[in-house]
Amino acid sequence: MFKTIIFDMDGVIVDSEPLHIIAERKTLAPFNLDIKDEEFHAYMGQTPKMLLEGFIGKYTLPVTIEELYPIHAANLLSLYRSDVTVLPGALALIDNLVNFGMPLGIASSSDMVLIEAVVTKFNLHDAFSALTSGQELTRVKPNPDIYLKAAERLSVQPSDCCAIEDSTAGVNAAKAAGMMCIGFQSPNSPGQNHDAADLVVDDLCQLSVDTFKALWDAAQYTQ
Predict the structure, then answer these.
(1) CA 27, CA 127: separation in Å to the nearest integer?
(2) Model pLDDT for residues 194-206, shown as the tens digit of each residue
(3) 4-14+86-222 — its CATH code?
(4) Which CA distances in Å does 81 have to 19, 77, 99, 178?
(5) Which of 36, 42, 58, 128 is most deeply buried (CB count within 10 A of its CB)?
(6) How far does the chain reach from its first CA to its final CA, in angstroms?
């Protein structure tokens, strides 16, 4: 059996992707850009700072990331504290795994202040043994660094971990780290490719301890 399960946060535990777009539009509103949602979706799984840097470069905005990012971070944190909601089945799955005795981690591209806001709002501090933010790393998803750091903090080998991810970048990061990965077709994470995942689900209620046992056993059988 896996020694730990590592959750992505945005689009897996919380339905926060719409909040990101609201905050991004608010941050970029002074520049009068006509941006389609698909342009925002292309950055799913990556950090908000990377998105803003991308838009500053693409649209030659007269602002630096050092000036713009604090405004965006404040917009996003306010929305998380007031409006973020959990996805159906997320808390039940976390409880199921905790009751089984499974150590859990979060590996999110979001800033640590947003991760802390979520675990505080939904009383999840005791459920997660390690929190890892893309803010801490030079290379972010789809690079494996965040998952390697999460495994290190949980004192396990990557091959003993299973990740749950909703984005293409996240699935590729977990697989590049040497983990198994469940791709979750999150309702507000369109256009993501889960081909590299070991299992794909469209409802977190489909997952249980038995799901992870079966995935682990199947992997051992094929080795």
Answers:
(1) 33
(2) 999 999 999 999 9
(3) 3.40.50.1000
(4) 11, 6, 27, 34
(5) 128
(6) 15
